[in-house]
Amino acid sequence: MKRQCPMCGQLTDSEVNGDFAFCSERCRWLDLGNWANESYIISGPAFDESLFENLDQDMARTDEETDR
């Protein structure tokens, strides 16, 4: 697969580049540094919090069924 490096825009190929999706180790480290410096922001929750609304109830119900 070929695509542009997200840091510098140079074309990179997954079949020949071990640092794919980056074009080089330098660009990979620059990207990691951006995450470490909190330059990137995730604008919303990483998961749907509504999935956990009934988790405690479901776990209690499962424990009750196991105790029988």
Give the gist of this structure.
The chain has two helices and two strands, in the order E-E-H-H. With 68 residues, it is mainly alpha-helical. The chain has one domain: Erythroid Transcription Factor GATA-1, subunit A (Erythroid Transcription Factor GATA-1, Chain A).
List keywords for this structure.
68 residues; mainly alpha; Erythroid Transcription Factor GATA-1, Chain A; 2 helices
Question: Can you give a write-up of this model?
Answer:
With 68 residues, the protein is mostly helical. It has helices at 25-36, 55-67; strands at 2-4, 11-13. It has a single domain (2-67), classed as Erythroid Transcription Factor GATA-1, subunit A (Erythroid Transcription Factor GATA-1, Chain A). The protein has a two-stranded antiparallel ribbon with strand order 1-2. A hairpin with a 6-residue loop joins β1 (2-4) and β2 (11-13). The mean pLDDT is 84.
**How much helix is in the residues?**
25-40%
CATH superfamily, called what?
Answer: Erythroid Transcription Factor GATA-1, subunit A
The 3D shape can be described as elongated
Tally of discrete structural domains: 1
Unreliably modeled segments: none
Q: From the 3D structure, determine the CATH topology.
A: Erythroid Transcription Factor GATA-1, Chain A
Query: Strand pairing plus helix content: what structural class?
Result: mainly alpha
In whole angstroms, how far apart are the ends? 54 Å
Q: How would you sum up the major sheet?
A: 2 strands, antiparallel
Radius of gyration: 21 Å
Mean pLDDT: 84
Strand residue percentage: 5-15%
Q: What CATH first level would be assigned?
A: Alpha Beta
How large is the count of helical segments?
2
What is the string of helix and strand elements? Answer: EEHH
